[in-house]
Structure to design on (236 residues):
């Protein structure tokens, strides 16, 4: 049998060699196949085959992104910060209906706290207000601290003067008709001493030409008229 195998190999050497070369060449060619340029397109890519790890860092630039391709739904919640927003692209807010706190407000309908307000219809606290409800601040509030002798110790604009008419009775005059306004008055000294206990009341004056004045009466705890310093505010 061995002699027969040897005779077979000698007789078919060239054929076997050709078969070996043919098979080796096919395997080599299969192992070194090179894809032509631009031959792999979207259709050849399996869904979800391209993941973040497969993308070179910095490879995706603005030119690679279609206009309006990145919408709000594509942006992760809370991923954008103030540093990501171009401030000049934000327009000015001309009017704020409600502002809990505004350092500077050109126009605020309701402001709980406004340090500076050019125009505020309603302001709980306003340090500086050019206009309140269309009126200047000096036209809304007038106040005065009046001594027990009827002299003005200190006062705002719009207070013309004060006078002691008699024991415990005073008249304060303003620069406008104050009959439509509201009044607030309290016994309060003009120094750091205690003004003493008592009662105080205020009323507008009747008669023509007196609409710019109010009368203040002060009594002690026994209801007897007594001279006391007081503070008065008028809100119009």
């Amino acid at each position: 049998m061995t002699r027969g195998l040897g005779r077979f190999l000698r007789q078919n050497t060239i054929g076997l060699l050709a078969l070996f070369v043919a098979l080796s060449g096919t395997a080599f060619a299969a192992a070194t196949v090179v894809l032509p340029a631009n031959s792999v397109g979207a259709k050849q890519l399996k869904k979800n085959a391209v993941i973040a790890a497969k993308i070179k860092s910095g490879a995706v630039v603005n030119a690679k992104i279609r206009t309006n391709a990145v919408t709000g739904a594509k942006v992760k919640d809370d991923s954008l910060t103030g540093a990501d927003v171009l401030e000049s692209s934000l327009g000015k807010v001309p009017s704020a209906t409600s502002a809990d706190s505004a350092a500077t407000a050109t126009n605020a309908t309701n402001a709980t706290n406004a340090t500076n307000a050019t125009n505020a219809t309603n302001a709980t606290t306003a340090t500086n207000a050019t206009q309140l409800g269309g009126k200047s601040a000096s036209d809304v509030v007038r106040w005065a601290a009046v001594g027990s002798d009827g002299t003005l110790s200190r006062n705002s604009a719009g207070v013309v003067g004060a006078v002691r008419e008699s024991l415990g009775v005073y008249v304060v005059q303003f620069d406008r008709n104050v009959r439509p306004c509201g009044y607030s008055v309290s016994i309060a000294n003009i120094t750091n001493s205690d003004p003493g206990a008592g009662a105080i009341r205020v009323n507008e004056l009747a008669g023509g030409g007196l609409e710019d004045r109010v009368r203040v009466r002060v009594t002690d705890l026994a209801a007897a008229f007594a001279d006391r310093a007081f503070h008065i505010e008028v809100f119009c």
About this structure: The chain has three helices and twelve strands.
